[in-house]
Amino acid sequence: MNITSIFNLFSYTFMQRALIVGLLISISSSFLGIFLVLRKYSMIGDGLAHVSFATVALALLFNQSPLILSIPIVSLSSLLILKLSEENRIGGDAAIGLISSTAVAIGVMISSLSNGFSVDLYSYLFGSILIISEMDVYLSMILSLIIVCTVLYFYQDLFAMTYDMDYAKVSGRKTRRLNQIISFLTSITIVLGIRVVGTMLISSLIIFPTVSALRLSNSFKSTIIWAVIISSFSVVLGLFVSISFDLPTGSSIVLINAIIFVLSSWLSIVRKEG
């Protein structure tokens, strides 16, 4: 397939939707990623992705909308993980493991009741640009706007909470409410993002761009900017690669993120040695 043919594909509505939603989700995940990664809480994306797998399987079993069913259940799961992680005997990683493993077991059980993995469930597992609807576009726009405005409005509080939680609490910042807000926005991002990269790979959009950006930047703000650039570039290039070589979109986006991470790590090493 030549370049002209590829560009012509972007004249189709489903490709335009995939590009818009992909870019908006990449922006959302990048703004949230830095707070999750620096607080060593990034695997919540993976845990919530497993929960969304169970909700999608349940929705398809009863012929319901996966989006409508997933948003409330995944949101409640994020708050449950947060609640469990606040207990002294259960850490954040253990809380994520408890919820995610239970959700996967439920999802597999439901899929077995529906005679195995259907084509629709497979699309949600690994992403498919063909299932992105007009509603997804509008929801992604609203979500991105809310996340950007939230981060900008609570920037100082989030900054203090990310680097020193004890100081944030002592200084009177409402850390509990901010944690709940970040968890809720992360859950919505996960649900919308599975349309593009699937439940098995969505957490990579939160982790990879931020980790790569941390190797290229020297400040908190520049890390967010670099993460947005890297994530957006990966989505656009991933779509081009998947169309050109008839490869899964989600896998293409994640592998490009992985390559960028390797290159950014190499540049970081070279810069330190220089």
First-residue to last-residue Cα separation: 42 Å
How many distinct helices? 13
Using only C-alpha atoms, the radius of gyration works out to 19 Å
Secondary-structure-based class equals mainly alpha
Structural domains: how many: 1
Query: Helix proportion of residues, in percent?
Result: over 70%
User: What is the name of the CATH topology?
Assistant: ABC transporter involved in vitamin B12 uptake, BtuC
The CATH class, by name, is Mainly Alpha
Query: Can you give the mean pLDDT?
Result: 84
- The low-confidence runs, each spanning 5 or more residues with pLDDT under 50, are none
Report the count of strand segments. Answer: 0
- Please trace the helix and strand order, writing H or E for each element: HHHHHHHHHHHHH
CATH A-level architecture: Orthogonal Bundle
Shape: globular
Strand fraction equals under 5%
CATH homologous superfamily (4th level) name: ABC transporter involved in vitamin B12 uptake, BtuC
Largest sheet: none
Question: How would you sum up this structure, described in words?
Answer:
The chain is mostly helical and 274 residues long. It has one domain (3-269): ABC transporter involved in vitamin B12 uptake, BtuC, CATH 1.10.3470.10. The chain has helices spanning 3-9, 13-38, 44-61, 66-85, 92-113, 119-126, 134-153, 155-163, 165-170, 175-197, 203-216, 220-245, 249-273.
Describe the structure in brief.
By secondary structure, this protein is an all-alpha fold.
